[in-house]
Design brief:
Blueprint lengths: L29 H9 L12 H17 L7 E6 L1 H12 L5 E5 L2 H12 L7 E4 L17 E5 L1 E2 L4 E2 L11 E5 L16 E4 L11 E6 L1 H12 L10 H9 L9 H17 L1 H22 L3 E3 L10 E6 L5 H10 L15 E5 L6 H18 L1
Parallel strand pairs: 2-3, 2-4, 4-7, 7-8
Antiparallel strand pairs: 1-9, 5-6, 8-9, 10-11, 11-12
Helix pairs in contact: 1-7, 2-7, 3-4, 7-8, 8-10
Length: 375
């Protein structure tokens, strides 16, 4: 006899130490919130042009440069608006005429859509695969000046290799929104690696970060010099100038900047990007092994492309994944619903560095308990 979902209560041992598994906004470490509270009276509510705030921006920029082992000449840029705003900024200040896009889900399609709608650019070349599939390799094309693809497609849990297309002369622009800080990357393989802090960096949204190569800096400055019309808040030349001063063009959310700096320093203190990637590897091994061996579940993505920061797990038709997610939420385990537009009978689980691998294990055990009660 099946149990009513509303009556299921998880036993104490099936409650993780922290129940937040959302793919963004993500779990924020309590230590970062406590550290922010300590600084509240001399940091929050103060001018972002003053040394108090600029020092925190410097800490964030230095922490990212250290974590990603940026070569000489690479710079860390930041601005307001998140990755979606960065797409707009890139359409004005990075793409010269025509871009190429690997589209493998909702967010990579949105980036391509921005470039297609820009009236001053040619229609982009789009390489598209079905959600969950491995993207085809980029091909070098002399008409392409910007090659765009995600490191991790947040909506589907597909992980891509960050490698320059063979023979390509254009900039390589990588959407690392959910991958940066949790997946290994070689800076020599990209010119622009952009992301936001509400995923692996365990903070709030509303800020974009971009690691840019000397070639990208040259492109930004050259396009700016052409007098192409660019809205001031989306001008990457202005962002470059302001970032070098450890500030943003307009007022940022100071709490977001602080938590970014705190998280980057925590990650570096534990061993940097390699430590973070190994931690995500461990969480991924736990959940995919569980799903591979399960009678009612299986990973959505083929093994070679499974993300180590965002797991998507499909369920048998006999299971209502939404009902499972609702039971988990009532028991304090949050935000494991599938991506809304994907429309699959699945759960999506973040495995960012701030999430304890043992909590991933407890989550799988909690799901098993719920399935036994429901079925």
């Amino acid at each position: 006899m099946t149990t009513n979902a509303d009556s299921i209560v998880l036993p104490a041992h099936l409650h993780p130490s922290d129940g937040r598994f959302g793919s963004g906004p993500s779990k924020v470490r309590p230590e970062a919130v406590s550290a922010l509270a300590v600084r509240a009276t001399d940091y929050l509510g103060t001018s972002h042009r003053q040394a108090t705030v600029r020092d925190v921006v410097r800490r964030a920029r230095d922490g990212l440069a250290e974590m990603f082992s940026l070569p000489d000449g690479y710079e860390v840029l930041l601005g307001n608006g998140g990755s979606t705003a960065f797409w707009d900024a890139a359409s004005f200040g990075l793409v010269e005429r025509k871009s190429q896009h690997v589209v493998i889900g909702e967010f990579s399609s949105k980036c391509a859509g921005v470039m297609k709608s820009a009236p001053h650019l040619e229609d982009p070349d789009v390489i598209e695969t079905a959600p969950g599939e491995v993207p085809r390799p980029n091909s070098a094309d002399p008409s392409i000046d910007s090659y765009c693809f995600p490191h991790n497609e947040t909506s589907t849990g597909v992980m891509c290799n960050v490698v320059r297309p063979s023979g390509a002369n254009g900039l390589v622009m990588v959407d690392a929104t959910s991958g940066a800080g949790g997946l290994r990357v070689d800076p020599s393989q990209f010119d622009v690696y952009y992301f936001a802090p509400q995923k692996c960096f365990a903070g709030d949204g509303g800020l974009w970060l971009a690691l840019v190569s000397p070639a990208a800096v040259e492109r930004i400055e050259r396009i700016h010099a052409t007098k192409r019309w660019i809205p001031a808040s989306l001008d990457l030349a202005t962002a470059l100038e302001q970032s070098r001063l450890n500030q943003t063009y307009n007022t940022p959310a100071l709490a977001t900047v602080f938590m970014l700096a705190h998280q980057a320093e925590w990650m570096n203190a534990n061993g940097g990007l390699e430590w973070c990637a190994r931690r995500c590897d461990e969480s991924a091994a736990i959940i995919y092994r569980w799903a591979d061996e399960h009678k009612l579940a299986h990973p959505f993505v083929a093994q070679s492309a499974r993300s180590h920061v965002t797991a998507t797990i499909d369920f048998d038709d006999s299971v209502d994944a939404l009902a499972v997610a609702r039971v988990l939420r009532r028991n304090g385990i949050l935000d494991v619903d599938s991506y809304r537009k994907l429309g699959r009978n699945q759960l999506r689980v973040a495995m960012f560095p701030a999430i304890e691998p043992n909590d991933i294990k407890i989550l799988t055990e909690a799901i098993d308990f719920i399935l036994e009660e429901l079925l």
